[in-house]
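Archive entry: two folds, one per protein. Generate the first.
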Amino acid sequence: MTTTVGRPGSTLRRYRVEYVAGGVGGILLVVLVAWVFAAGNEPGGQVWDGRYADARGLALWLITSISEPQYYAVASAGACLLVGGAIGHLADRKSWKWRGFVQACGTGLWPWAAGSALLSLLLGTIAWGWTLEPGVWQPLFVPLVSVAPAMVVLYGPGRIVGLTAAVTGALFAPPASIAAVDLVCKPLGLPLVVGATSGMWIGALVAFSLVRFLPWMPPPGAWRTAKAADPAPRTASWLWVPRRALADFTEAQFFGNEWASAAMLLGAVVAYAISPSALVYGSGLFLAVLAAQAVTALTGVLIWRRRWHAHGFYPTFVPVVSVAPATVLAFGGTVPAVLLGALAGALVAPPVAAAISRRLPASFHPFIGNVASMSVCTAVIVPVLGLIPGVAS
């Protein structure tokens, strides 16, 4: 029997490439954060109005969009999120004791998922940026948190998968969200997140239906060479609850890691200290939004802790980026709006998301059920809460 041993030289070269790439990437992220803070955060987050010749505005818009799923919409939070994600990935690769939850739905494919998502955001903004006007918002951030990273997680790493995911996400998610916002939400007075998330699941249904017929795409899930049941998370420790609640702050971007969330929140808090009007579309409601998100994250994890243990994952993050902040913006950040929106979202949105996801075919990523739950629950809960005396300011 012949045993094949890898050549030490090739292994050494591979490690050198990884270290050099990691070092260059780290330097670029530090430079990005420094540039963002030096450039400042524009009041209301409207840093670009669709003029493609405005390269600086476009760059800030892209970085700002990274934190838009949380309603922060501030460049410093977006840049710090990328830094935190890189730290979380490094911690996982090096098996640090405090590495936190594994990113990209527990797959560890963070570089591929994040890279495809960022490319999809860039392509989508270039393709649909013409819909912007001064003072007019459009949900151009949606490719970042929908088709692209979900497709990478389902179909696996690789250039062809990442590029296909980025292109299909940019083609289908933004126009569906823009149409839903302009034709449904604005005429009916619904929170705009309903339209943004509706476009995500509509665009995803189209994209995932089409890619099954592309000859260069592998079978979904085939990249997992060893199909083993995911171990149940260790939910017995009370420390697990705040850790999971913190990670839920960035689950929408397919990060879902404590390092990533802490870095993003740090960037948002620093921006708020410098200019309160820079966050949450200039509403001045950042602290109320943050409080609602914290309450709904902790409450959701506590309520559905057993589901986490039984299934290995449960979509408790859904109200963090939908019902809770939408209620705050709809009713002016009153204490009843913060508490009722957070509690109602934590109680209703996760099981609705799980129920929809369970009914999806294997070739569709479960995130579709999560964003569909965001649409439905926000469209129902926010108007109902508005009927309660004292909720509106």
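Generate the second and append.
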Amino acid sequence: MDVTSKPGTPATPVFCTIVPPHLLDKLAQSDAPEHHEPARRTLEHDAFLRTRRHECTLRTAAARAEGSDKPNRTIYDARHSQDLPGTKVHSETDSASKDASVNRAHAGLGATFELYLKVYGRHSIDDAGLPLNATVHYGEKYDNAFWDGERMVFGDGDGKLFKDFTIPVDVIGHELTHGVTQYTAGLDYNGQSGALNESISDVFGSLIKQYALKQSADQADWLIGADLLAPGVKGAALRSMKAPGTAYDDPALGKDPQPAKMADFVDTQDDNGGVHINSGITNHAFYLFATAVGGNAWEKAGQVWYDVLTGGKLTKTAQFADFAKLTIEAAKTRFGASGAEHEAVVKAWSTVGVVTAE
């Protein structure tokens, strides 16, 4: 049965935060108030927001407009409340703000819009010119950022473990890519399909950063959320696509639990079946593919992933093997069966232990 979303019809938006629940749960159990208090508040906020996520779909659909080659960005300030969208503080044509968070949010939305338009010919996340809205300064010491189906929302972090969530451009790209998935394949946010949903956001979040920095695949750090962890935290980022499981190892945060291969797949009921954990496997496959092909990762490896995400064959309940098979077919279609790209993607999936019929 074909359960893909019809083109242009948004699936119910998932509620995904860049900091995964398992990490916040660890912090919430800490004896140190400076760690457990922000974590508990963040978890409470997130639990409430999950219950209202389905309400956004129709409002988002109604906001679609004709495609444009220019972004339409609006930034709001929650002023440390939990009320969304907050007070409008910056429009597309306004000059730079005195608030660095506002400027970073504006720039990150623009970097995401630019990659999708200039590389893949996509007009905003819905391919129909959807305005890009964001809210900064959400909540008190809110340790997260998320896409809610209508806008990006950024916390300021607690200042002890996490800095302002507008700082890493790949975090912004990651969350907005959940919107792209919402308007295309609509991957279910559970188990392997949920891990694919998370991984696709990591892939394009990384590509958005690489494109903005003009980095080739071998120059990129392949980290998600670098510069987000506060000084003194023993870690480099939230996740590593190059070496899943090595992003952090800190007394407060614990150790990065991501596997790099199917042999280490984590079977859990937490986090919607480990969507933020097992995404390390498909993240690593993309890293292996992109670095084997070389050059700019958004040009070939990213194009293959984008072809699959938007091609209409990826079902909502796709498993890793289903996605892998489609990427192999896409590489063959775009670059030829005898091309280095086809060989590289086959080898990448084999290396991480995802078996396909290919």
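Annotation attached to the second fold: The radius of gyration is 19 Å. Residues 12 and 57 are 6 Å apart (CA to CA).
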